[in-house]
C-alpha cells in the first residue's frame, strides 16, 4: 500500500503549486517555456532563448543551418571571407541580448563594450592605427579563430582551461597549459559556434561576488562535463555581425 500516500500527495499537489500550465501540440502536451509547437504538430526545443526551427522533420538552429525550399537542412556558408563582430543573443534575457562581445582587457572576451585595444601611434604613426573601438574576429578554414588585428603574429582565440574565451597577447603565442585552440565555426547570417563542446554551446557568466563594479559577464564554452557547474550561467548564442569598417578592428587587443 505504499503507493497510496504517494498518489494522495500527487493529487493534493495539484491545486496549489501546480507545474506551469501545459499546452497541446497535436496529441502531445508541452511546456511553452521550453518548447515551441510548429504547425500544431511538431515540437522543437527552445535553446538559449531561440525557439528551434523545423526542416523536413528535424529541429535546427538558424545560427548554424538553413532549410532549403525542398526541406533539406544545410550548413550556412562559413564566415571565412571577412572579419566579423559578435553580438550576444538570448531574447529571453534583455540585459544581455544584443550586447556586443568585446575584448574587455585581460585578454578575455566579455559581454558589452567598450573594446580594450592599443596602438603604438608614436612608432607606427597615427594614420596606421585602426579605430580600435570594435572587437573584430576572423575565422580560418581549419576552424582556428583570431582577433582581426595588425600586430605581427596576430592574436589567436582559444578556450582557456576553464573554457572561458581568451586570446593570445600581442607578440606572444603563449597561452595557459591545457588551453584549446581551433574547433570553432562561424556562419554568414548565423553564429559563432564552439564545435569542441559537442553541441552544448556558450554561456555568459556573471562576475563573481566582490568583483569590481564595472566587471563584465564572461563568455564560457560549455560541455557535458561542465554543464552542471555552469548551470548558474546564462545560455547564449553569439551572432555573427558583418564588420564593414576595414579588414582589422584594432592594432592589437589588450
Ligand atoms: C568607432 O569609431 C568610428 C569613428 O572613429 C565610428 O564611425 C564607429 O561608429 C565606431 N564604432 C563603434 C563600434 O563604436
Ligand atoms: C569541458 O570543459 C571543462 C572546463 O569547464 C574542461 O576542463 C574539460 O576538459 C572539457 N571537457 C571536454 C571533454 O573537452
Ligand atoms: C554592414 O554592411 C551590411 C551589408 O552591406 C549592412 O546590412 C549592415 O547594416 C552594415 N553594418 C554596419 C554596422 O554598418
TrEMBL record:
GO terms for molecular function: carbohydrate binding. This is Carbohydrate binding-domain-containing protein. The keyword Ubl conjugation does not apply. It comes from Lasiosphaeris hirsuta. Pfam families: Carb_bind. It comes from the Eukaryota. InterPro entries: Eng1_septum, PhiA_domain. Residues 1-17 form the signal peptide. Keywords: Signal. Residues 24-69 form the Endo-1,3(4)-beta-glucanase 1 carbohydrate binding domain.
Amino acid at each position: 500500500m505504499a503507493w497510496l500516500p504517494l498518489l494522495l500527495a500527487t493529487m493534493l499537489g495539484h491545486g496549489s503549486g501546480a507545474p506551469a500550465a501545459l499546452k497541446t501540440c497535436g496529441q502531445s502536451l508541452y511546456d511553452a517555456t521550453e518548447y515551441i509547437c510548429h504547425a500544431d504538430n511538431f515540437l522543437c526545443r527552445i535553446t538559449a532563448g531561440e525557439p528551434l526551427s523545423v526542416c523536413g522533420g528535424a529541429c535546427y538552429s538558424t545560427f548554424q543551418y538553413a532549410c532549403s525550399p525542398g526541406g533539406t537542412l544545410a550548413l550556412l556558408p562559413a564566415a571565412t571571407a571577412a572579419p566579423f563582430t559578435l553580438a550576444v543573443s538570448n531574447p529571453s534575457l534583455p540585459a544581455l541580448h544584443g550586447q556586443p562581445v568585446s575584448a574587455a582587457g585581460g585578454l578575455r572576451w566579455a559581454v558589452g563594450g567598450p573594446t580594450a585595444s592599443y596602438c603604438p601611434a608614436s612608432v607606427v604613426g597615427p594614420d596606421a592605427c585602426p579605430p580600435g573601438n570594435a572587437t573584430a574576429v576572423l575565422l580560418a578554414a581549419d576552424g582556428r579563430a583570431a582577433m582581426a588585428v595588425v600586430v605581427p603574429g596576430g592574436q589567436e582565440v582559444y578556450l582557456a582551461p576553464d573554457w572561458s574565451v581568451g586570446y593570445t597577447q600581442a607578440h606572444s603565442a603563449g597561452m595557459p597549459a591545457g588551453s584549446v585552440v581551433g574547433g570553432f565555426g562561424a556562419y554568414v547570417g548565423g553564429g559563432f559556434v564552439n564545435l569542441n563542446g559537442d553541441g552544448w554551446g556558450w554561456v555568459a557568466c556573471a562576475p563573481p561576488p566582490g568583483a569590481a563594479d564595472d566587471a563584465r559577464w564572461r563568455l564560457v564554452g560549455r560541455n557535458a562535463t561542465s554543464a552542471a557547474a555552469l548551470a548558474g550561467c546564462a545560455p547564449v548564442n553569439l551572432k555573427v555581425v558583418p564588420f564593414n569598417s576595414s579588414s582589422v578592428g584594432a592594432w592589437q587587443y589588450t
